[in-house]
């Protein structure tokens, strides 16, 4: 397994990292690994069902708002 050495870490950041590790009952090294795993996780792409549910939710939120035909917006943009 690879090793990483961090140098010149700000004292305030190290204190917050130590506090976070203590709150999770981890060592600082384990906490850093957990943070990196969380940040580097590949994004989860929703399936078709989730996508359609989200689209339906957005439609419901914007149903009462006036909508402008996209052709009008494109034309206005081209005329600028």
Task: Give structural notes.
α1 (11-23) crosses α2 (28-40). The model has no long low-confidence stretch (mean pLDDT 92). This protein has one domain (1-80). 0% of the residues are buried. The chain is mainly alpha-helical. Helices cover 64% and strands 0% of the residues. The chain is elongated.
Structural class: mainly alpha
Spans with pLDDT under 50 lasting ≥5 residues?
Answer: none
Helix/strand order, N-terminal first: HHHH
Q: From the alpha-carbon coordinates, what is the Rg to the nearest angstrom?
A: 24 Å
The number of distinct helices, counting runs of at least 4 residues, comes to 4
Distance between termini? Answer: 56 Å
Number of strands: 0
User: Given the C-alpha coordinates, what overall shape results?
Assistant: elongated
Layout of helices and strands, plus pairs?
Layout: H1 11-23, H2 28-40, H3 48-62, H4 70-79
Helix pairs in contact: 1-2
Q: What descriptive keywords fit this protein?
A:
0% strand; 4 helices; 80 residues; single chain; 64% helix; mainly alpha
Task: Compose a concise summary of this entry.
The chain is mostly helical. 64% of the residues lie in helices and 0% in strands. The model has no long low-confidence stretch (mean pLDDT 92).
């Amino acid at each position: 397994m690879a090793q990483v050495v961090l140098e010149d870490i700000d004292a305030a950041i190290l204190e917050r990292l130590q506090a976070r590790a203590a709150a999770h009952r981890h060592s600082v090294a384990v906490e850093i690994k957990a943070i990196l795993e969380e940040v580097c996780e590949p994004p989860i792409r929703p399936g078709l069902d989730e996508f359609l549910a989200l689209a339906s939710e957005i439609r419901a939120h914007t149903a009462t708002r006036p909508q402008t035909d996209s052709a009008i917006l494109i034309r206005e943009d081209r005329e600028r």
